[in-house]
């Protein structure tokens, strides 16, 4: 029996990386890449995750599927807390949760044929052998818009878009339920991006897949996502249904991010105002208390340096973390 609502529940997730130990027994500093993040994803839903480079979105995706062990918090998959399972008990979940990587070339073994790359995933989980295995590889290649004959070729013989299709076929080989798509189109030509996104949408509909779609292209995230979460320096600052977030962003950071999206209509573009963020994203090493956006926020008040704003419902399931709200 599967939970449709809250298929994936992330509660107070933390992923900290130790960076240095002070001399004479001082404390260890941590990069707090993901620091107390909570959200959920329903079955068959796409949750987009956006934010500047270094905001923790990729680390969040990798920690959810246990490529990284969480420092704290809980990952609940279809009602089962998988945060601290032993490798053996984690094995069935490794099959159910897959990842599509940003750079398909770096994530495919250049010395293996495409057939072996896809077949390796089938072998690890002992899903098919002999003729059935071969037929499954050929089926998966066709499913992602390639030919059966491509099984005998090597990754360098393919274009970037075709290599990403191989990466998707490899993820599908183990019949996953949940896929973390980590910037899957960022490295592709613009002309190819829409094809890959359309294919991901078709696969989702046909196979009932659930996606966490990580990206920095805000227009594409709006197109593919049912809901979108915005991260800043290891925190979730706003999360809402996709149209709601793009039409009524309430967090000052989200407002600035969205104001940078080019507007195709010249009349609309002439009346819209771009909010330029001053300064750089601060270091995630032991960040100071209060709101992490305070040094770049045009609305910052004294309380923003003292108290960390909580993520709260500002109406109709639209969540945001800001003292103004
Ligand atoms: Fe700006 Fe304060 Fe809101 Fe943070 S809490 S976004 S600093 S107004």
From TrEMBL:
The keyword Nucleotide-binding applies. Residues 8-258 form the ABC transporter domain. SUPFAM superfamilies: P-loop containing nucleoside triphosphate hydrolases. GO terms for biological process: peptide transport; transmembrane transport. Keywords: ATP-binding, Nucleotide-binding, Transport. The keyword Cytoplasm does not apply. InterPro entries: AAA+_ATPase (IPR003593), ABC_transp_ATP-bind (IPR050319), ABC_transporter-like_ATP-bd (IPR003439), ABC_transporter-like_CS (IPR017871), Oligopep_ABC_C (IPR013563), P-loop_NTPase (IPR027417). GO terms for molecular function: ATP binding; ATP hydrolysis activity. Belongs to the ABC transporter superfamily. This is Oligopeptide transport ATP-binding protein OppF. It comes from Clostridium tepidiprofundi DSM 19306. The lineage of its organism: Bacteria, Bacillati, Bacillota, Clostridia, Eubacteriales. The gene is oppF_1.
